[in-house]
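seq as requested:
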Amino acid sequence: MSAKPDEGISGDRPLNNPDDDELGYASFASHVAKRILTMAAPEGFVIAINGPWGSGKTSLLNMVRFFLCEREPDEQPILIQFNPWWFAGREDLVRRFFETLQSAFEGPGTEHRIRELFNRLGGMVSHLPVGTAADVGRAVEWLTTARELTVPEVKEMIAEQLRGLGKLVVVTIDDIDRLTFDEIRQVFRLVKAVGDFPNVVYILAFDPHIVAKALVEPGSPEETQFIEKIVQVPIDLPIIDRSALHRMFFRKLDALDELVGGHDTEMFDEQYWGNLFLGGIGSLLKTPRDVARLMNALQFTYPVVHQEVNLADFVGIEALRVFHPRAYDLVRSNPQIFLHSSELRLGAGRKEVDLNELLGTASLEESARKPVGSMLERMFPRLSANYDHGFDSNWRRQGRICSPERFPIYFAFSLPSGEFSTQEIKALLSAAKDPNEFGNILLRLSAEILPDGTSRARSMLDRIQDYTEKDIERAHIPNVVAALLELGDLLCRDEDRRGEIFDIGNSSVLVGPPSK
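struct tokens:
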């Protein structure tokens, strides 16, 4: 199965078609649409869909509109979609709001008359005074005093025309919580001013905590009461099924993996991935927007290094970069802690790293320390008192982030200069079937000098030690031994000692440890 076009970089696009729903919102949207079509709204009605940012409010609104449009043409309501976030400034919001209302009534007769009246009312309401949060609730009162000779009359004319229209009007207003506090107050002032028109249903989508702060001073007892005065039916967005959210992420990750040609199965441990995901990564994915943010990051970074890193570890460290950048910076800036934590063990008691205290230094909130700490303990086994050096070679082969040789790749998104890639190692082992070809590769690597003066042959000899006779066909082993014996002198360069006093150099690597 090839990746669909929409499996690429996501612009956090909301859903429009219920067939694309993966979180169970479609059935709820269908119920809301049916209820709207059967309800009586003689004096107008305001519904609020409450939910935090990224929880899918826009998707739900789109699906409600979809189901409203499924009716026969003569049964469909007039749908008006207004997004105040597209505009800026108080006067622009008011003008655009009434322009949107007018544009929905395009027919002759009654609709033409309604359009004219909305145009006139918009000009009046645009002169509403701008006040503090406490002034919002007095918007209509101002209308009936300062403009009592004209505004009430115009509103009644509109009401009369709407009653005679014989159609329900549904106005959806989205992204209210993205506005500035002054703009949020302005939107609610508008809804309050025109929310009592007959046969008109308003559906507002916002985060109630953000809107409440905008409407009144923090701590005021009226913090939620004002919303209740405008909104007749508050609806909390359905709780997202965590398993459905995870399935959405897995599907997108599968598509990305397939797009880059698949991961190296030898570098992927399904049990380790399951433990890392359930123990931490999964708890960081709380909304569809979280899934989109992490996948967008992976779309950019994973294809560059997918052959050199462990997929599970890479998803884990990228999840920290996206959701907890301070924890990510803590790891990136302190490899000595996460790769060599034994150096921090003090005294006879061998005191271990206090991971919770360490995360506290990164100003990580208490609620996030448990999942983040769980992830780090799995990704960096050296943090554990049960660390076993015998796994070092396996971790290097598997591309694990806990391998000092692999660690820089996760942050530079590229191989360090001169480092041998996994694909190069496999190509070298494959070449062992021909002793001449194998020997020529060794000579070429010995002649490739790196900026530090060592040859790439040294990097190759370091990496190839991770591979055993299980990785080389038995019939090819004599070819490897013969090539190393024949070319040994050419590979043993003094420069490959890298300058350290205790560096054993290529000669000792080739000879190996003395037999017991």
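The chain has three domains: 24-236, 242-412, 422-511.
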